[in-house]
């Protein structure tokens, strides 16, 4: 019996890779350091419980007309999709002490699409089609050693025990910067490859997302789309986050840099964000039924110290491949490794499908 393929990371890329391996009747073991699947996809209810029918604190949008791999996956899984709400006027906040400017909104083409139930519905649908015995949560990979016939990997399991397993290949579905910082490779990477992985920005890592839930979308009643931009903050970009099921919400990207967010604390940022929504949308915004906040820079399974400052977006096709001695055993499959759409949900799908296809091709052509 052939050893399994080791998939590291249970976000969208890791789940797509596992799904494709399972379809090809290739055994796999998926290790996820978190105690949940989804990675940077995090869909929560107003009470902050994880949910497949709630609000996205990670990525939410995709564009099927220009991201065919993502569109095909959503259709294949039979998931409903709907347009991001954009009907109504936009608000701009530029000068402190002055009311926000109200301008006619513009329809986005192609429209941003969202998944009914939130992006977490992708995670749930993919996980449902995989054998549970092949998925290990709370399993943190520590090292991978190349051998003549495959790889040997060490990891710490959910109970704190040190475990080892042998695999034919290792497919890394996690940010290359995080990989370089947390996993010891033997033989080690050459200096140029290690630098490329460390210098590749991690999608979502520098950012924080705030969400306020309401009993109804009162801004729509006032002819507003829920879209706003601000140079005053703490939120720099705001959108309607209401669900397909009708739960009303606004969300915003926090413009305060990660070091300052850590200094101020979540409570102070949330309070300031609610005050800002009142400035923009009026008194009703001051009484959310719940708020949600996620600082990805403070998530040790997403970000490293190098992610504290917002950097450039990952460049499609810009990541150095594995060095020659690893090239037939180590596969990069996270969104940052995508040849197109790097740093998006679509990039995670494209990178995972490409890596699995290359792995299968190597197996077929091997003597």
Automatic annotation (TrEMBL):
Pfam families: Amino_oxidase (PF01593), NAD_binding_8 (PF13450). InterPro entries: Amino_oxidase, FAD/NAD-bd_sf, Flavin_MAO. Residues 112-360 form the Amine oxidase domain. It comes from the Bacteria. One of its GO terms (molecular function) is oxidoreductase activity. Belongs to the flavin monoamine oxidase family. This is Amine oxidase domain-containing protein. It comes from Zoogloea ramigera.
């Amino acid at each position: 019996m052939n050893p399994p393929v080791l998939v590291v990371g249970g976000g969208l890329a890791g789940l797509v890779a596992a799904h494709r391996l399972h379809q090809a009747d290739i055994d796999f073991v998926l290790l996820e350091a978190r105690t949940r699947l989804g990675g940077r996809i995090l869909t929560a209810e107003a009470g902050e419980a994880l949910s497949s029918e709630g609000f996205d604190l990670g990525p939410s949008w995709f564009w099927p007309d220009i991201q065919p791999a993502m569109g095909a996956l959503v259709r294949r899984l039979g998931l409903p999709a709907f347009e991001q709400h954009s009907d109504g006027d936009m608000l701009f906040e530029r000068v402190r002490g002055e009311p926000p400017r109200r301008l006619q909104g513009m329809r986005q083409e192609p429209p941003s699409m969202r998944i009914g139930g939130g992006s977490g519905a992708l995670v749930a649908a993919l996980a449902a089609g995989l054998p549970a015995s092949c998925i290990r949560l709370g399993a943190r990979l520590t090292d991978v050693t190349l051998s003549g016939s495959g790889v040997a990997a060490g990891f710490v399991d959910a109970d704190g025990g040190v475990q080892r397993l042998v695999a034919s290949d290792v497919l890394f579905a996690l940010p290359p910067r995080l990989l370089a910082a947390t996993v010891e490779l033997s033989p080690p990477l050459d200096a140029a490859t290690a630098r490329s992985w460390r210098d590749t920005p991690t999608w979502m890592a520098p950012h924080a997302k705030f969400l306020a839930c309401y009993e109804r979308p009162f801004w729509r009643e006032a002819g507003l789309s829920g879209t706003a931009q601000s140079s005053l903050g703490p939120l720099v970009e705001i959108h309607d986050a209401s669900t397909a099921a009708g739960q009303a919400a606004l969300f915003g990207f926090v413009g305060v840099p990660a070091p300052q967010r850590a200094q101020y604390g979540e409570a102070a940022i949330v309070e300031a964000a609610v005050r800002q929504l009142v400035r923009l949308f009026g008194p009703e915004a001051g009484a959310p039924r719940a708020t949600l906040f996620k600082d990805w820079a403070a998530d040790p399974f997403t970000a490293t110290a190098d992610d504290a400052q917002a950097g450039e977006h990952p460049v499609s096709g810009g990541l150095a491949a594995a060095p020659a001695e690893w090239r037939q055993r180590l596969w990069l499959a996270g969104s940052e490794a995508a040849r197109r759409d790097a740093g998006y949900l679509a990039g995670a799908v494209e990178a995972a499908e490409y890596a699995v296809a290359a792995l299968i091709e190597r197996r077929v052509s091997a003597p």
